[in-house]
Structure formats: C-alpha cells, structure tokens
Amino acid sequence: MEYKISPSLMCMSLIDIKQQLEVLNRRADMLHIDIMDGHYVKNITLSPFFIEQIRPHTPLILDVHMMVENPSDFIEPIALAGADFICPHAETINRDAFRIINQIRSLGKKVGVVLNPATPVEYIQHYIHLVDKVTVMTVDPGYAGQPFIPEMLGKIAQLRDLKQQKGYRYLIEIDGSCNLRTYQDLLSAGAEVLIVGSSGLFTLDDDLDIAWDKMLDQMRQARHAA
C-alpha cells in the first residue's frame, strides 16, 4: 500500500527554515502545521501568520492541525493564509460538526478531523463519510517527542476496515511517534499518511537531505516487513 510522508514543521529548525523548506519541497508529499492556542493544549506553536509566510515558498499541500478550543475562530484566517487541509479535533466540534464542516468546504478547503487517543472512532460516526482525512493521535496532543500508545493500532485498523466496507474516501493519517520503532506496525494496521517529526526525521542527521535518506531506508525496511 502506498503512503504519504508529511513532515511536522513544528519540529524543524526555525533558524534554518529556508534551507530546510527547500529540501522538504523536493522530497515531502505534504507539510504538517500545528496550530495551538495554549488552552486546548498547554503549548503554543505556529499560527495563521506562519502559514501566510511560507505559502509563497512551497507548492506542497499544507495540512493544518488545529489544537484549539474554538475552531470556528481560526478556520477563516487559516483558510485565507493558504491552508489546504483544515483539521479540527473531534472533541472540539461535535456540538456543531456539520456547521464546521460546511464552513471549511465553503472556503474551498479539504476537511480533516483529529481523534485523541482516548476518543473512539464511534465519536465521529455520523459525519465520518463527509471528511477527507481522519488523523489518529498516537500520543496525547500538545508536545513533540512523547512515547507511542500501542492501543492506537486497533483504532487505525478499525478505520481501515470501515473505509473498505463503506467505500469511504478519507485518508488515514498518523500523528505521534512515527519512527523506526513504529513504522512496521503502523503500515500493517493501515496508515496512509505518516507525520514525521523529531524522532522520525529531524534528529536523524543535521543535514536534512541525509536525514531524509535515513528515514526512507527505515520506512522501506518496515514496508517490506509489513
């Protein structure tokens, strides 16, 4: 099964952002951007302004993960800044999920939804057929470098089976601890987009091209084993 690679820009070197973005433009399938408000999660990271600044410098799909308490406050600014996917957490939209989905679509963007580790697939059962991507958090949200939660493999397989049975079109994306230790299990379970961060890419070598080659070697080994 083919899979896509989406580097997390939260984990890149902001000092070397121009050079690293040039490498990612040549090699990545899409770019993952975390928006955190300091309330839904304790951390504060990137912003719509960051999206606006890099949009002219990359042709890649910008996949925006919204870790915010009030997604409706951020959707239009994120869309206008140049995002392609806008992905709120299911836990923040279930009171008005259909309105949020329609708002994102009306802005010409693709719709994603993100599930925290403790949130079951059934939580989004009434609108899962409307989304373009489901992201499974395999760590608790908010910080890079956390340990992988193995119980999430069953959730990934559940999404894969549901997609096949119902003919749904969503991509199955994985966010959290995608690296050498987890690639084989993730791909076997049905992962289609791997978000790579500190452990999966950016700490493998100071030279991002070399780090990318190392990551690809690890993924090839895992894919062959899967």
General description of the model:
- Helices cover 38% and strands 19% of the residues.
- It has 226 residues and is an alpha/beta fold.
- It has an 8-stranded parallel beta sheet.
- The model has no long low-confidence stretch (mean pLDDT 93).
Give the structure's gist in a few sentences:
The protein has nine helices and eight strands. With 226 residues, it is an alpha/beta fold. GO terms for molecular function: D-ribulose-phosphate 3-epimerase activity.
Descriptive keywords:
9 helices, 226 residues, globular, 8-stranded parallel sheet, alpha/beta
Largest sheet: 8 strands, parallel
Work out the radius of gyration. 16 Å
Average residue-wise pLDDT: 93
Find the count of extended strands (DSSP E, 2+ residues): 8
Function: Catalyzes the reversible epimerization of D-allulose 6-phosphate to D-fructose 6-phosphate. Can also catalyze with lower efficiency the reversible epimerization of D-ribulose 5-phosphate to D-xylulose 5-phosphate.
Organism: Rahnella inusitata
Family: Belongs to the ribulose-phosphate 3-epimerase family. AlsE subfamily.
EC number: 5.1.3.-
